[in-house]
Amino acid sequence: MPTSEPVTRLERAIALDAAGNFDEAINELARGTRERDAACTRALGLRLLTGDRAPFLPQDGLRFLGEACERGLPEAAARAAGILALGVRVPPNWAFALEWLYRSAAMGWAPAQRQLLGLCDDRPLAKRAALEPRIDWRAIAGAVDLNSWRRAPAVEIKSDDPRIGAIPDFLRPELCDVLIEAAQGSLERARVYDAAIGENVVKSDRDNSVANFNVDSVEMLHALLQARMSAACGIPERMMEAPTVLHYAPGQRFHDHYDFVDPGSTTDYAAELARNGQRIVTFLVYLNDDYEGGETAFPNLNLAHRGRRGEGLYFSNALADLSPDMRMLHAGRPPTRGEKWIVSQFIRSRATR
Hints:
Blueprint: H1 9-18, H2 22-34, H3 38-50, H4 58-70, H5 75-86, H6 94-106, H7 110-119, H8 123-130, H9 137-142, E1 156-159, E2 164-167, H10 173-184, E3 188-189, E4 192-194, E5 199-201, E6 209-212, H11 220-233, E7 244-248, E8 254-257, H12 269-276, E9 279-286, E10 292-293, E11 296-298, E12 303-305, E13 312-316, E14 330-332, E15 335-337, E16 340-348
Antiparallel strand pairs: 1-2, 2-13, 3-6, 4-5, 6-7, 7-16, 8-14, 9-13, 9-16, 10-15, 11-12, 11-14
Helix pairs in contact: 1-2, 2-3, 3-4, 3-5, 4-5, 5-6, 5-11, 6-7, 7-10
């Protein structure tokens, strides 16, 4: 009779979490960490660094993520970079985050290497390095100008009232590729919030896919991107929800809809706004343009925008008093040829972190 595979400590911890036994899940991860299990060490580090169903012990969290990196999981250092850059429960520390991204790249994590090469502001150096068998990752990290991400880019106003602004060269092409690659393994069918049942559900008027980035998957680049969005539209990055990347295959679309929190369909609207705020701005970044169709359309404004690769577009969703702006009906039209990739970022009227 065949024997079943033994259950790992990480699998036990996941089962304990599912049962709501978070303390024992942490204990199981700690046992695995003492046994030098890299996956348990990574998971424990993330929990402690963010205080996710665990005590908030950031120094211990970073230590365990570093140990996971040394034990053969360099991806763990990239997770530390993303959390430190984003600023989870503490102010963001970009310089420290860059050190962790360098550590991940130097230990061989290919996604961190591509990210670091894309972030390098000495483009000739980055292009030469990409062709070399051995790369000086310290030199690449040293050529990243972190301050540039908080400089306000030039905005082209497409509509003054309601406000719609475009930024043609918002993101360099190499970083567009990095964001697409980071999303490709995490895509799932996009959902729409159903206020009647209080859940996100699959609906026929939206059939594209989405990759969501939480603290277990956020990259340093996502945090920097939010800072550039903040500089462009003048709203602090702490007001931003978790970043997402949307994918549209040929024929996929998101029919006419609004992005604001709708008082007509949201149960206990006043409490929702008091707790989470209104979605006052949507910010898009177009990651490719090798497709046909796929416009972002605003039918009430007689405006349709087909973004170029690396272009940013933001638009308001609410009026000054946070009430919905009914003019801001919009849609993601289907590509007729090729795939469309965009970053979609919701910005709230109050802090989300």
